[in-house]
Structure formats: C-alpha cells, structure tokens
C-alpha cells in the first residue's frame, strides 16, 4: 500500500538528549528495503506560492496560505505492507523527534 509521508516542523520537539537517527542512514535503509520510493526536502515556506481560484479569477499570493509555525519541510512516498509498517518507518525518521510526521494513504477510487 502506498502512503505519502509529510515531514513537518514542530514548535515542541522531543527533549530527549540522546542523539537522533541519521537521515542518510534512514534513507539508505528504506531505499534498500524498497519501502521508500521517492522523497525530498522542500525549500523554506517563505518560497511558497499559494494559488486559489475564486469567482473565475486566479489569485496568487506569496508564502503559505495559513499562518502557522508548523510547516511541511519534506516528503517521502512509501510502499508498505500496511499502516503498521508505515508507522514504523515514520517512527524511525529523524524528524519524528524534532518535528512531526503525517502519514496518509493514497485514495483508492476503485473500491
């Protein structure tokens, strides 16, 4: 099953002083196991462009649409057997300690 894993910042990171996992090791391990199909870090939220259409007009604004301190900083496309495996992959991502991870399955419109 495919999952989109959003890697987000967080205003309340983990306070555990133990060293966190290495992102390069996490990427290599999950690529090798075939669980990570693609992923990338994103440019800062200040580079975002928001596009909306209202009353037939295209509205373009700089930056994220919402005022928030938590922003998406990257993503990974996962292929896991089930949600439990996706949670395990997310749990071991370095940003699970200093940020937050959102896992969302792809919609299946054929059901």
TrEMBL record:
Domain YCII-related, residue spans: 39-109
Classification via InterPro entries: Dimeric_a/b-barrel, YCII
Superkingdom as given in the UniProt entry: Bacteria
Pfam families: YCII
Gene3D superfamilies linked: Dimeric alpha+beta barrel (3.30.70.1060)
SUPFAM superfamilies per the UniProt record, alphabetical: Dimeric alpha+beta barrel
Similarity annotation: Belongs to the YciI family.
Protein name from the UniProt record: Uncharacterized conserved protein
